[in-house]
């Protein structure tokens, strides 16, 4: 320390200059956090796979919606306004890929206009960065929507942008409130105008330098970053930085009042309080550094605080002694005393009770905290919208969609299947329909839209029972047609018999009688064919037999033509009969045409049945897509909407009955994943890549990943703290007591937070990221206060365990309570941020620090320590008296 004091000016100038240069040159941390995104999922997450797959296939388009709301059913004028905006959007530029005018067709009107006709959706498919999409949304709001029209622009990118914007505004408010709050608290603690500026300057330098270093690390090595990075840097550095400054300045004041020179006072301060500072800083550093072992990028983003802690230690050992040496006793002007040196009357009273009656003290803590633990449900919320509230337009639009169309329709779950070969074929689409059908069986699924059911409704014609029913109807029609042909030919036969009876003997019309006989035979054959068709339904045989009958009728028609020609050459009445034969010949021709239609129909039915018999998909699924279906113009829009990547991939849109952000939706997504896995097992699609996207899918991934990552990271963090505390305190019991007491405090604080936000304020749960960050903050920061107490206890141990604990509590009580109040105050500055997750984290930390400082530390830990006696240093040797 003397060397640092010797070169205090060069060191201080260099550090301040370095901070200024790095601050000017460093990237914008706020911009980096926004670019990283609200949700950062690992590469193996289903939603991340889906996003990458869509991006690689050039299908990473996103849909935003203009939501129009009306007090009355939409009228012609409003319809024209919507259509006009749609037309204007289509010419807006390359960013917009498609615009669906809800009044372009009846089908679109049915899908995009609510049943009460008071909500109208104008979907816009866009392909661009989040920044470009939000710029487009602003242009739509400002330039296209008339002033007398109520309309909102919403979509996933817009909601995420609003969340980021809200977080940044919250950060700005937090920074200002934190600085003002700390200044006021330091005035109260030191009763000096000068003193508060030293911690604020030191912590300010720390924050600016840390922020710059973290920003460079993000650019250079891909250091994790999120909105939480900057916010936690502010809260933690200003909080514990101020606490550490209080510890140093208080001890410095004490050394000066004892008559030491300025230099000796500084050196003694860093020998005593500096040691405690290093232990505490190291513990906090390990706590936040352990976060680096997390897989989840959002969790890892708090590791930047570890960088801040390292910088804080550097500043506290350079800048703070610089001001101590520079200002000397003027550092405390105009105060002559510091309230922080007085023994804590509150902790002294607590100490008498907890040390003399340890069992009763532990029971008191149990009575206070255990009932709260039984109320803890670990009820989480994944509703991003709750983060920003309903004042934002994107949220109002989402609410309007939910009210008009149902909750699930606003943000569907997308199931994506992709393989190396074409998936849009008649042979494979039945499996897509089976997947759609299996998903829809889930009671929490409202409908499924896919390439085989584009409107979300089942197409019965694709199912074999419907197709066989149609074939049966065709056979009945064919039988009826044969009966009609038989009747026609019977009439022709009668007519020919009449004509034959009127021809005088000796006339040349012998072919007429043969025709009459032939018609009789044909009718008999048709009757046999009809009967055989009804009995055996042998379509192919019937078709072949009809071909033979047609040939016979052709010959009869030729014979009639010859007879008519022969009679025409004769005179008198006989010649007139040729006209009747000619008319009857036409009747035979009509019969031939009728049989031809029947034959073609039977041939089509035969081909259909044959193809069905040869279809593996039909045997597997009960679904059959007839050949030529995909070439039908009416099927084109479905292929365009639900197929991509040169028809090697398809999308299924699953509309949920529940709110897409709800925990019920997460469970439904898990069930959908299991359903799809079962549906494709053993099919030609079993090797296809399956991925899921959409809000509910992302939240499902967040739930699974955050839970496993939380468990693993917490274990690493606690093990790291246990090892370092064991080494520093030369005891395995003390670290267990410290960590155990912090865990008790954490879960009690979580229970209280649930009571406040769920039971009292009516939120659907604690935001999913809050338990992790609340745990890290409370454990890493709360361990400081147990270190303050037990490190002093170790120093005093030579006078006896009970007496050492009494003295330690009296001396450290004010320091701990003051530090806890200041740290709680810095987190309290998050409350006006308006960001729900920050408010919940602040509640957990504030509640935890107050519980720890006023109940656990003064009542539980002393009681446990004195109960162990010398065993508190196990397995090491106890302190010598």
Automatic annotation (TrEMBL):
Stretches assigned to the Membrane transport protein MMPL domain: 45-358, 584-880
Record's subcellular location: Cell membrane
InterPro entries attached to this UniProt entry: MMPL_dom, Mycobact_MmpL
Chief location of this protein within or outside the cell: membrane
Transmembrane segments: 176-193, 200-222, 228-249, 277-299, 305-327, 359-376, 710-729, 736-762, 768-790, 810-830, 850-876
Superkingdom of origin organism: Bacteria
One Gene Ontology term, aspect cellular component: plasma membrane
Topology within the bilayer: Multi-pass membrane protein
Alphabetical UniProt keywords: Cell membrane, Membrane, Transmembrane, Transmembrane helix
Family designation: Belongs to the resistance-nodulation-cell division (RND) (TC 2.A.6) family. MmpL subfamily.
PANTHER family per the UniProt record, alphabetical: MEMBRANE PROTEIN MJ1562-RELATED, MEMBRANE PROTEIN YDGH-RELATED
Protein name as annotated: MMPL family transporter
Native organism taxonomy: Bacteria, Bacillati, Bacillota, Bacilli, Bacillales
């Amino acid at each position: 320390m003397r060397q640092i004091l010797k070169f205090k000016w060069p060191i201080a100038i260099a550090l301040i200059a370095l901070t200024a240069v790095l601050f000017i040159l460093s990237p914008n941390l706020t911009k980096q956090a926004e670019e990283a995104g609200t949700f950062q999922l690992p590469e193996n997450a289903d939603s991340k796979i889906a996003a990458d797959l869509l991006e690689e296939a050039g299908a990473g388009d996103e849909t935003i919606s203009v939501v129009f709301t009306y007090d009355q059913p939409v009228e012609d004028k409003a319809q024209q306004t919507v259509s006009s905006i749609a037309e204007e959007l289509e010419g807006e530029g390359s960013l917009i890929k498609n615009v669906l005018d809800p009044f372009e067709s009846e089908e679109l009107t049915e899908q995009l206009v609510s049943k009460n006709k008071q909500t109208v959706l104008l979907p816009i498919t866009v392909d661009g960065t989040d920044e470009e999409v939000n710029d487009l949304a602003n242009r739509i709001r400002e330039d296209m929507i008339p002033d007398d029209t109520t309309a909102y622009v919403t979509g996933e990118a817009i909601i995420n942008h609003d969340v980021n914007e809200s977080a940044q505004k919250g950060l700005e408010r937090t920074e200002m409130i934190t600085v003002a709050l700390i200044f006021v608290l330091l005035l109260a603690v030191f009763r000096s105008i000068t003193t508060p500026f030293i911690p604020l300057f030191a912590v300010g330098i720390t924050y600016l330098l840390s922020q710059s270093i973290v920003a460079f690390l993000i650019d250079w090595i891909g250091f994790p970053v999120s909105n939480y990075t900057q916010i936690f840097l502010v809260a933690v550095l200003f909080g514990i930085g101020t606490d550490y400054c209080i510890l140093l300045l208080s001890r410095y004041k004490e050394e000066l009042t004892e008559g030491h020179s300025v230099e000796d006072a500084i050196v003694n301060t860093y020998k005593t309080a500096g040691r405690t500072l290093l232990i505490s800083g190291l513990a906090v550093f390990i706590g936040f550094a352990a976060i680096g072992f997390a897989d989840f990028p959002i969790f890892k983003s708090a590791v930047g605080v570890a960088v801040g802690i390292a910088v804080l230690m550097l500043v506290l050992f350079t800048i703070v002694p610089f001001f101590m040496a520079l200002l000397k006793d003027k550092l405390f002007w105009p105060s002559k005393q510091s309230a922080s040196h007085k023994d804590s009357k509150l902790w002294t009273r607590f100490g008498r009770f907890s040390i003399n009656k340890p069992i009763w003290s532990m029971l008191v803590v149990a009575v206070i905290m255990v009932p709260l633990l039984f109320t803890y449900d670990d009820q989480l919320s994944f509703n991003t919208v709750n983060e920003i509230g309903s004042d934002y337009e994107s949220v109002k639009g989402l609410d309007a969609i939910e009210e008009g169309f149902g909750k699930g329709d606003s943000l569907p779950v997308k199931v994506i299947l992709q393989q190396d070969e074409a998936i849009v074929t008649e042979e494979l689409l039945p499996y897509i329909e089976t997947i759609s059908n299996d998903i829809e069986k889930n009671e929490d699924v409202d409908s499924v839209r896919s390439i085989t059911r584009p409107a979300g409704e089942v197409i019965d014609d694709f199912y074999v029972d419907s197709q066989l029913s149609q074939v049966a109807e065709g056979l009945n029609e064919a039988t009826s047609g044969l009966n009609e042909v038989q009747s026609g030919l019977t009439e022709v036969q009668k007519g020919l018999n009449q004509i034959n009876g009127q021809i005088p003997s000796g006339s040349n019309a012998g072919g007429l009688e043969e025709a009459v006989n032939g018609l009789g035979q044909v009718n008999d054959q048709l009757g046999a064919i009809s009967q055989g068709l009804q009995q055996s339904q042998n379509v192919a045989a019937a078709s072949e037999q009809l071909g033979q009958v047609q040939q016979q009728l052709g010959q009869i028609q030729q014979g009639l033509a010859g007879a008519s020609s022969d009679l025409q050459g004769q005179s008198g009445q006989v010649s007139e009969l040729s006209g009747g034969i000619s008319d009857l010949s036409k009747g035979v021709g009509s019969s031939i045409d009728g049989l031809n239609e029947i034959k073609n129909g039977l041939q089509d039915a035969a081909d259909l049945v044959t193809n069905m018999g040869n279809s593996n998909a039909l045997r597997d699924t009960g679904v059959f897509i007839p050949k030529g279906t995909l070439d039908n113009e009416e099927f084109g829009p479905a292929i365009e909407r639900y197929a991509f990547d040169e028809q090697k991939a398809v999308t299924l849109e699953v509309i949920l009955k529940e709110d897409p952000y709800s925990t019920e939706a997460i469970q439904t997504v898990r069930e959908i994943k299991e359903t799809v896995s079962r549906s494709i097992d053993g099919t030609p699609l079993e090797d296809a890549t399956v991925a899921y996207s959409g809000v509910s899918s992302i939240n499902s991934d967040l739930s699974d990943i955050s839970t496993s990552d939380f468990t693993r990271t917490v274990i690493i963090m606690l093990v790291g703290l246990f090892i370092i505390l064991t080494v520093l305190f030369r005891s395995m019991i003390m670290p267990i007591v410290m960590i155990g007491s912090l865990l008790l405090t954490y879960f009690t604080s979580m229970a209280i937070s649930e009571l406040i936000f769920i039971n009292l304020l009516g939120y659907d749960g604690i935001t999913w990221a809050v338990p992790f960050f609340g745990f890290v903050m409370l454990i890493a920061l709360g361990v400081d206060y147990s270190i303050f107490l037990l490190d002093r206890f170790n120093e005093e141990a030579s006078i006896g365990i009970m007496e050492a604990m009494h003295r330690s509590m009296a001396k450290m009580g004010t320091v701990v309570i003051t530090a806890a109040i200041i740290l709680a105050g810095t987190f309290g500055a998050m409350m006006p941020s308006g960001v729900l997750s920050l408010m919940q984290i602040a509640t957990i930390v504030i509640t935890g620090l107050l519980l720890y400082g006023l109940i656990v530390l003064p009542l539980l830990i002393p009681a446990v320590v004195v109960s162990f006696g010398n065993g508190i240093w196990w397995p090491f040797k106890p302190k010598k008296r």
